[in-house]
Design brief:
Elements (H helix, E strand, L loop, with lengths): L1 E5 L4 E3 L3 E9 L11 E7 L7 E3 L8 E9 L5 E10 L7 E13 L1 H9 L16
Parallel strand pairs: 2-8
Antiparallel strand pairs: 1-3, 3-6, 4-5, 4-7, 7-8
Length: 131
């Protein structure tokens, strides 16, 4: 399995909702079985689903899988991984881990990074030189 990640950014505000989309390709020699799912494996769930259905695709075919997440209410770095799995009594996981890694900041700190701190001080440049 190979994949491409489509993520607009990696920094979000607290409680902000965002989407992650992966474009997955079946690089194996056989079709993915019917009933495959993308499953949460470890880390931070980020308000996302524990699993979602994935279609059966033939070798060389691609599929887009998209999940919606909600940032936690506390600032920090968060990471979670998901992985493809077959279904049934003898289910097994396959492919690479698909990671979501984000930085969550309070709204004020992200705005400050974009515009600079407002310290209430005006600095004026003078062109006066004394020798």
């Amino acid at each position: 399995m190979s994949f491409t990640v489509y993520q607009a950014q990696d920094s979000y505000y607290i409680n902000e909702t965002f989407q992650m989309k992966w474009n997955l390709q079946n690089t194996g020699p056989v079709p993915w079985p019917v009933g495959c799912t993308l499953n949460f494996v470890s880390g931070d769930l980020l308000g996302g689903p524990k699993s979602m259905p994935a279609p059966s695709i033939s070798p060389g075919e691609n599929v887009d899988l998209e999940l919606v997440f909600t940032c936690p209410p506390l600032p920090g770095q968060y990471a979670g991984s998901w992985k493809m799995s077959t279904s049934g009594d003898f289910a097994y996981m396959f492919g690479e881990d698909l990671w979501v890694i984000i930085n969550v900041s309070p709204r004020d700190s992200i705005e400050m990074e974009e515009t600079g701190p407002n310290l209430g001080v005006d600095i004026m440049q003078e062109d006066t030189f004394q020798f």
